[in-house]
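Tokens help. Consider this.
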Amino acid sequence: MSCSSCSTASGGTPRGCKSNGSCGSDSCNKLTVFDWLENMEPASGDTPCSFVEVRFKNSRKEFFRFPEGLQARAGNLVITAVQHGYDLGMVTLSGPLVSMQMKRKKIAENSDAIGKILRIANQTEIDKWQELREKEGNIQKRAREMAIALQLQMKISDVEFQGDGKKAIFYYTADQRVDFRQLIKDMAHAFSIRIEMKQIGLREEASRLGGIGSCGRELCCSTWLTDFRSVSSGAARYQQLSLNPQKLSGQCGRLKCCLNYELDAYRSAIKAFPKPEVKLHTEKGIGVFQKMDIFKGVLWYSYKNDWVTWHKLSTAAVNKIIQKNKAKETVSSLEEYVEEEIKSEAKIFDSGVGEDSLNRFDKPKNFQKKKRRKNNKRKFHNGPKKTT
């Protein structure tokens, strides 16, 4: 969702907000939170919230306490206090919704994890921040070349400069432990800044880089998803999906996070179904489970001696057979409980005019004139007939 200023201009070219990388409504940025309490005043007797949520580059978000007399709202660029300098970030959330987010993430108001906002950034600090952001691509490329020269088995995926330009955080991914002490010395000598190396996982790397998923939308991890839960192959089995790694894997190479979205609904729906390992005993043979359709509430069984023929049974019919097996009652065959399919009659297209033809108002074609024209053309090409 973008703000109204991001619509297209004449000729189809994107207009853009032209706000030096910031957006007043904070709708064009990653991990945007819609503040549905923004226009609501606090109740009488309630003190206004003195905390804000500040987003730095890509997926890093932290909570800060702003001083008295300073009103920071969403979209403001603020200067935050850090060790040995300052950093620049954008306020993404303010007001009572911040306290709800803090409770959800289990952060107390007197926690040491809450930083302090010094002031609102001026234009000089914003320009310097923009220059540092433009340098990150070239510095990342040079850092990768240094890592390759040292033959380090690591991938530097992203670089983030501090607002004052005195420090840079290099995010990398690696399968094993890497000794990058020499790399830090080389980068500190080449860039003349303090270096911090931070290892991230493949999911966090995808969230920082962003991209388009197989669904056609932006990646969930780079737009709104902040907590990365482990996804197992059991989630695909519950949803009756084929275990194809190419279809179930995301851009990070791991199982897609969206497999967990509907997993709870599938688990609650499967409770009404009998277990697949339970066999149906009949006089004709033993019925073995083949597959199920959770949405339609039906199951397919086949006999042990006839694996080709499948019998479609409803959930109620299968539970009834299982109860009879437990009570040691005889069941003749599965065919008695097969669910009959109701064939719907094929709908004939109705043109809206009944049985009348659509070309009934057209003028009748004169086929005799066409025949005469064809005969005249043949005579003209063949020439006059010769007489003897």
Notes: The CA atoms of residues 280 and 322 lie 7 Å apart. Residues 280-337 form one domain.
